[in-house]
From TrEMBL, chains A, B:
<dbReference type="Pfam" id="PF00356">
    <property type="entry name" value="LacI"/>
</dbReference>
<dbReference type="InterPro" id="IPR000843">
    <property type="entry name" value="HTH_LacI"/>
</dbReference>
<keyword id="KW-0805">Transcription regulation</keyword>
<dbReference type="InterPro" id="IPR001761">
    <property type="entry name" value="Peripla_BP/Lac1_sug-bd_dom"/>
</dbReference>
<keyword id="KW-0804">Transcription</keyword>
<dbReference type="InterPro" id="IPR010982">
    <property type="entry name" value="Lambda_DNA-bd_dom_sf"/>
</dbReference>
<protein>
    <submittedName>
        <fullName>LacI family transcriptional regulator</fullName>
    </submittedName>
</protein>
<dbReference type="Pfam" id="PF00532">
    <property type="entry name" value="Peripla_BP_1"/>
</dbReference>
<dbReference type="InterPro" id="IPR028082">
    <property type="entry name" value="Peripla_BP_I"/>
</dbReference>
<keyword id="KW-0238">DNA-binding</keyword>
<dbReference type="GO" id="GO:0000976">
    <property type="term" value="F:transcription cis-regulatory region binding"/>
</dbReference>
<feature type="domain" description="HTH lacI-type">
    <location>
        <begin position="2"/>
        <end position="56"/>
    </location>
</feature>
<dbReference type="GO" id="GO:0003700">
    <property type="term" value="F:DNA-binding transcription factor activity"/>
</dbReference>
DNA sequence: GAGTATTTTGTAAACGATTTCAATATGATT
DNA sequence: AATCATATTGAAATCGTTTACAAAATACTC
């Protein structure tokens, strides 16, 4: 690989001039610029990004730390972040914490050590212990789950309202005994639960502790929680889960108990997936604007990198209710 | 951030000694080592990886270029690669080509510019144009799809045999008129098609051109191809697709035509997904050992980084046939 | 055409580590 | 105690850029 020195020699100029041509500085005579460009082309020169980063004390890489890469929601986010970052000339380092705060902390340090320009993080918990250890200057955008105490940019869903609308939809379709399986340890799960309870109250119903479960936001936990709910002496008429993995687990449980959807139990959830419209009946859900979340988060991050002192922002996006067969108007049995 | 110089000053030694302590060199007196370690701890010193990379002319980052991040197969691979890389002290740069050879070429250059130690690539086509432009020394492991002419390490599935077994399973269950929807432009699609045709021949049937479609390996294309097959004057009794996205599209088409599975049309595919066992009937498929593919690819890559001249290897892993309801023994109608 | 202002160019010092080589200290051997 | 071998240490070069500063070249003014 040719270096800037060789280009300089070939063009008969100093490395400073080559560097200026590279940076499109106006203070280079056209004749010289031509010579330099010619040398660059002939030697197939490409700047060494590491040297550049060392000098600039910053890379053109951003980090994305997701809490579960198996969750299609985060896959969609990754795609959007990668797209947007690439357009801006940044590449993406991806890490997966598997909902483990220790891994989160480790990866934040990895990011710091890699001198990434900034990090987009879906935190494993509402405090983000690892975040506080970082210097103040470290650019971070939090997505999906809020960290109430942290003064960082965030891109979130209107969780309370979305859950409210989802629950109201069930209530309006005649379901009364509605259970909720919520992701534990995240504000997202709590907020969606709050929206669910608000809707119940608005319709004159009292939330029952027995019908609300906080579990790890994963398939196995959704399956186990759903089984226990379905086995209750007085089982729920509808199940609301707060993400697609919990929904997959719940669906598995419903199938295992041989129950018909929605006659015997309705099912609604968050997050659009390939399968939600393929199962029968298709699943009613709140669709998140995943691409927009990822894109917005990346843009916020790059803005903060450019201007570290700007006031932090909190962008709240609206979910969209997609009504499908799994919550069809209830036909009273008996 | 403290630098090695400050540590050296604090410990009253030269930077060389600090560096030696860092590298666990045996040629440092215990007393000095203690002093250095103390200074490191007190200053919360962490080596600057960029400076290290510049000097070493190599990073501790590997690249993963996948052809479609929405495909759960590649999500699973990413997870495995990320896991394995992390264990070895490497981090992961992720890129998504969307089956676009241009993006592939661009990203390979991005990787080169980023001085990654090596790249794991699922190529968009069987020639990998971008690959040849790279210097010979660039460490690459190809996964999922082979590049017949390239002398690089590869981790692949036994595509022909897997497709053979999948098709044979259909034949043994009484299906005769079997259509195949294959991913175009990849050896994977071609090989799976070959296995399918071999099985037909082994059972005394002649492959029909009409029943074999090569399309982009994506949901929409699977949907369109399946619709056209189902609308044939003499529609197929079974559909075989070569990945889960094509299967999702095919299933959508089957649903749209209101056909029962497997009575009116059976469906089998490649790749396990969340939904394959949740739809009804659940889908018969060949499961790939995704975690092992990703892990093996990463290990091969790091071995090659350590020893660039070692002979290239081609690891072929076996797929596992999971028999489910979508291919239940055929009940002849009429 | 001399003097000044402006533009263009080059020199050399960073950035933060690793490593070669030489110098010094230590220990072993006689 | 002198000599030699060996183990420790440090000075300085290096990786490939960018950029502050100085120097040189050019343009402008009177």
């Amino acid at each position: 690989m040719a270096s800037i020195k060789e280009v300089a020699r070939a063009a008969g100029v100093s490395t400073a001039t080559v560097s200026r041509v590279l940076a499109n500085s106006p203070h280079v005579r056209p004749a010289l610029r031509e010579r330099v460009l010619k040398a660059i082309k002939e030697l197939e020169y490409r700047p060494n990004l590491i040297a550049r980063s060392l000098r600039a004390q910053q890379t053109t890489t951003i980090g994305l730390i997701v809490s579960d890469i198996r969750n299609p929601f985060f896959t969609a986010i990754s795609r959007a972040v990668e797209d947007t970052a690439y357009e801006e000339g940044y590449s993406l380092i991806l890490c997966n914490t598997d909902e483990d705060p220790k891994k989160e902390s480790i990866y934040l340090n990895v990011m710091r050590d890699a001198n990434v320009a900034g990090v987009i993080l879906s935190p494993t918990g509402p405090t983000a212990a690892g975040l506080r250890e970082l210097e103040a200057g470290f650019a971070v955008v939090v997505i999906d789950r809020s960290i109430p105490d942290a003064d960082v940019d965030m891109v979130l869903l209107d969780n309370v309202d979305s859950a409210y609308r989802l629950t109201r939809h069930l209530l309006e379709n005649g379901y009364q005994r509605i259970a909720a399986i919520c992701g534990e340890r995240s504000t997202t799960g709590r907020e969606r639960c709050a929206g669910y309870e608000q809707a119940l109250r608005a319709y004159g119903l009292l939330p029952t502790a027995e019908l609300v479960r906080f579990v790890p936001p994963q398939i196995e936990a959704g399956y186990a929680a759903a089984l226990r709910l379905l086995d209750l002496p007085e089982p729920p008429e509808a199940l609301l889960t707060t993400n697609s993995l919990l929904a997959a687990g719940a669906l598995e449980a419903i199938r295992e108990r041989g129950l018909r959807i929605p006659d015997e139990v309705a099912l609604v959830t968050f997050d659009e997936t390939t399968w939600a419209s393929l199962v029968q009946p298709p699943i009613t859900l709140i669709e998140q604007p995943t691409y927009e979340i990822g894109k917005t988060a990346t843009e916020l991050l790059l803005q903060r990198v450019a201007e570290p002192e700007r006031p932090t922002r909190r962008v709240i996006l609206k979910g969209r209710l997609l009504v499908r067969g799994s919550s069809a108007p209830r036909v009273r049995c008996g």
